[in-house]
Q: What sequence folds into this?
């Protein structure tokens, strides 16, 4: 079968297995030559480790100096009569193969991280593969829904402003078009449900589960990712439903920090940079900011992708051997270059100029689109996209 990119709106409907492998290999190559993580953890659980920040964290810790073994949980689709499967499914295969080549364990558990059964499965895997304990738990789930464990009904996140309607533009990757729309303010119910899905409750449930099963190693740490962004994005992000959920996550980090203090460990919310991922292109109103930010940061030489952010997080901040550097709210800041005053002043000027006619030429839309294609295994010069792919043989091959 020949696999071509199919995009509907901002969602990729296809993924190329060999291209996904290239994306994984490029990340591995990057961390091997980057500043190494010298005092990193050896047994790591990543919840949401098949793409974006979670996959980058897994790659950094396995190949970027720490030589960690990993268990990753993700919610991905394999090939079926409905389609070729999701990029994360192929990333998992490519990651495992390359980790095993270097003698590292890489266990992939596919299922719903919110469920009790997947938590039980992970505890069992920790027993089997990690001699019963983890050194680091990374929570990197981005989801639109979460089942209520009591009723089975779905909580749904709504990406909306709070208290005011907000106008913003979304860029449709499907046909490179710019759409301005008004986002209605969220109802209280929508804001509450977004906190249930994207706040800290499930992160805490994971850590509690691992404490109860005595799976926490001495010195164990846990991190989850957050975003704050500049004033320009506050109406849609920090002051909106997602921001409320992130504030909840920050508060959860404090209660988890107290719990892990019993093991001489710690918990940190880590504020990252705005980046193109499967999850972020979904946020209405954010893409004009991201294409302007990419343009300015690339020109200044300060641009980072997920992999650069994660390697720097572990080598310079979380495992640098000193006290973990945090701000006055006890957050680890990886967004310091994004929020640099000169960067933001240039981004503001550029965003003000952007419109439907000029966004592809004035800002870095090309880089944005290229990164999106790469996330799904497309746009790599060393993959022959006109060649038919035998998906079964990709999945079953051993070298
Ligand atoms: P992503 O979409 O690339 O990755 C999400 C991961 O969650 C995937 O591994 C997916 O399989 C997994 N997942 C989703 N639902 C699941 C479920 N029910 N059970 C198990 N796994 C599930 O997203 P991204 O952007 O890497 O997001 C990760 C975290 O980073 C989120 O908390 C996000 O808010 C945060 N973040 C993202 C930024 C960005 O610009 N992309 C910036 C700062 C923070």
A:
């Amino acid at each position: 079968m020949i696999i071509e990119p199919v995009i509907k709106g901002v969602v990729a409907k296809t993924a190329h297995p060999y291209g996904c492998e290239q994306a994984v290999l490029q990340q591995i190559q990057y961390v091997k030559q980057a500043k190494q993580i010298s005092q990193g953890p050896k047994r790591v659980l990543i919840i949401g480790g098949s793409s974006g920040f979670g996959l980058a964290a897994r790659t950094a810790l396995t190949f970027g100096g720490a030589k960690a073994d990993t268990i990753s949980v993700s919610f991905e689709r394999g090939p079926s009569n409905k389609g070729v499967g999701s990029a994360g499914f192929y990333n998992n295969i490519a990651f495992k193969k390359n980790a095993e080549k270097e003698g590292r364990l890489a266990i992939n558990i596919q299922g719903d991280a919110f469920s009790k059964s997947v938590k039980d499965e992970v505890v069992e895997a920790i027993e089997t593969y990690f001699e019963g304990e983890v050194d680091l738990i990374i929570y990197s789930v981005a989801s639109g829904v979460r089942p209520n464990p009591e009723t089975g009904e779905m909580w749904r996140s709504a990406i909306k402003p709070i208290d005011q309607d907000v106008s913003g533009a979304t860029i449709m990757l499907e046909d490179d078009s710019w759409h301005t729309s008004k986002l209605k303010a969220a109802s209280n119910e929508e804001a509450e449900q977004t906190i249930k899905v994207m706040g800290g409750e499930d992160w805490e449930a994971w850590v509690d589960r691992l404490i109860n099963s005595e799976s926490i190693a001495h010195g164990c740490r846990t991190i989850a990712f957050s975003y704050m962004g500049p004033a320009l994005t506050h109406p849609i992000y920090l002051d909106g439903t997602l921001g409320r959920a992130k504030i909840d996550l920050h508060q959860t980090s404090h209660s988890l920090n107290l719990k892990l203090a019993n093991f001489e460990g710690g918990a940190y919310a880590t504020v990252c940079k705005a980046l193109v991922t499967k999850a972020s292109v979904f946020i209405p109103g954010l893409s004009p900011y991201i294409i302007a930010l990419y343009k300015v940061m690339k020109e200044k030489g300060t641009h980072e992708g997920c992999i650069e952010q994660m390697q720097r997080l572990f080598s310079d901040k979380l495992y640098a051997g000193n006290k973990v550097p945090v701000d006055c709210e006890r957050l680890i800041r990886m967004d310091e270059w994004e929020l640099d005053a000169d960067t933001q002043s240039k981004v503001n000027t550029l965003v003000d100029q952007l419109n439907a006619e000029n966004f592809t030429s004035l800002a870095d839309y090309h880089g944005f689109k290229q990164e999106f294609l790469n996330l799904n295994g497309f746009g790599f010069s060393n993959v022959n996209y006109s060649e038919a792919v035998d998906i079964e043989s990709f999945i079953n091959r051993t070298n």
About this structure: The chain has one domain: 7-160+193-282+302-335+383-394. The mean pLDDT is 96. The first strand starts at residue 7 and ends at 8.
